[in-house]
Design brief:
single chain, three-stranded antiparallel sheet, DNA-binding transcriptional MerR regulator, DNA-binding, MerR_fam, 2 domains
Length: 127
Amino acid sequence: MTYSIAQAAQRSGLSIDTLRYYERIGLVDPPARDSGGRRTYSDDDLGWLHFLTRMRTTGMPIRMMREYAQLRHRGAATAGRRKQLLFEHRASVRARIADLQSCLEVLDYKISHYEQIEHTFVEGITA
């Protein structure tokens, strides 16, 4: 199945401008064109966009995404380096998750603290 750029944008959650930008910087191969010269995206293209979106969501720098995309084009011989990039990024994601977990604990503590204050205040009024 093929998709127009608008459909690909909607399905991927990326804007049309972002799709064009990703193409311009080499993250996405230039898509096929229909008879009118308009970009058409395949299911494989959308799968790649989904992967890129996940990597951006986890904070992977564009520089690293570009390296990964370039290696991908060179085939199976680059599997080791691609795996290494993902290992490195996974370590970064895990560290960020740990930081966020620590922040969440502080938020939970403060919320609990304010709930206790509210409870004490309400009991003081009704007593």
